[in-house]
């Protein structure tokens, strides 16, 4: 039913074999796309993702602020506009626990 195929890795440009048994495995799992990377590049990518926790997002930008409750300096993940109160982590957590 399946025949071995030669594919080209989009990462390194080398040709690699997509065997009939691999194609059968892909079909059983419901995968519709052929692999785009050779086994070596797939393994390297998996290892890199494991080291990054699976995410390649940039660190979140933090902005300085003064807590509206206790007056302590803090940082928040948004640019405070001044029209709403901003809380440090401790004050925010105590306020959200008391509101439940």
In short:
Pfam families: zf_Tbcl (PF13451), zf_Tbcl_2 (PF23477). Residues 4-49 form the Probable zinc-binding domain. This protein is α+β, with helices and mostly antiparallel strands and 100 residues long.
Protein described:
The chain is an alpha+beta fold. The chain folds into two domains: 5-52, no CATH class; 63-97, no CATH class. The protein is 33% helix and 16% strand. It has helices spanning 20-29, 39-51, 89-98, and strands at residues 5-8, 15-18, 63-66, 73-76. The longest helix has 13 residues, at 39-51. The chain is elongated, with a radius of gyration of 25 Å. The termini are far apart. The model has no long low-confidence stretch (mean pLDDT 88).
Q: What about the largest sheet? A: 2 strands, antiparallel
Instruction: Estimate the strand proportion.
Output: 15-25%
Return Rg in Å.
25 Å
The class by helix and strand makeup works out as alpha+beta
Low-confidence runs of at least 5 consecutive residues: none
How many strands in all? 4
How would the blueprint of this fold be written?
Blueprint: E1 5-8, E2 15-18, H1 20-29, H2 39-51, E3 63-66, E4 73-76, H3 89-98
Antiparallel strand pairs: 1-2, 3-4
Features:
two-stranded antiparallel sheet, 3 helices, 4 strands, 16% strand, Zn-bnd_dom_prob, CxxC-x17-CxxC_dom
